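User: I'll paste a sequence; please echo it back and then give the predicted structure.

Assistant: Echoing your sequence first, then the prediction.
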Amino acid sequence: MRNDLLFALLILAALATPAIAQDGGQVTGPQASEVAPSRFGGREPDQAYGAYQRGLYITALKLALPRAEAGDKAAQTLVAEIYARGLGVRRNGQLAAKWYEAAAEQGVAEAQFQTALMLIDGEFLPRDRTRAYELMKAAADAGNPMAQFNFGQMMIDEAGNEADEREALAYFERAARTGLPDAQYALAMLLTQGEEPDLAAARTWLARAAQQNFDTAQVELGSWLVEGIGGARDMEAGFGWIELAATGGNVAARNRLAKLYWAGMGVEGDSIAAAAWYMLAKREGLVDPVMEDHLAGLSDAELEAARTRMVEIEQGGSGPAALEEPEEAAADEGSAGQDQP
């Protein structure tokens, strides 16, 4: 796993679809109604939070700022959120860092998490891995799912023994049980390692992440179903998951789908479809010797047909509208809160 996974959730927030605040300005984060008051720590900042919840971000800032300056940790977190996301005002990383750090010192888990990310990144706060580790752990122990996932990743990066890895797995599992697909996938991968891998449990967590449209988990789950890893073999279901990820644009999935069409696994063999899906993957830089041989064996007419099929795929002419959850995932939902997945 890579260190840049630590920033995945922060990046996703930054890329959210813009909207317009009711009192003017560009909004670049989630709508206020989607944000739970508990994120801000302790009690709500009363009228300031009410304005925030209604999308009146400039009003919320004006009401919260005096309280933040007076040491109110909830108001400090709210002010940091507004500046960090550019809600009604221009984004200001320095001010966001200042107020997140102030709230983090008072034990607000969301502020601890955001401050830790900034300490790792080093753009708005001096880079400090040790302090970031401490704050991320504090936020994780306080129950912040994204902090649990990121702290688990930090532990894996620095793990010196099996005990450290087991503790990291526990943090991943805590985050996974909240429904965080990144953590569900990471937990699944960890469960495949060690002297006694638990492939059945790993497959269950893959299914949960895949069901949330986590494309990497969809590709992995599809491959496991095709090969019969961690449970019964189901090539048709495996094909469906890989097709879903491929239709969504996952390059690895497109190449694997091409091979399934080529081999007739989980689907009727189709050399034209195999070539079309591989052409899409190859255009993104993926080169597979097996599929290169397949292309080399096609006639000019077949290659032209594959190019036509590729255009149809791009225009939305292929791919299922929905996919049922695999049986093992559905059956496991009733025990989601138990100690074992």
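Confidence is low (pLDDT under 50) at residues 1-35, 318-341. The beta strands are 19-20, 26-27.
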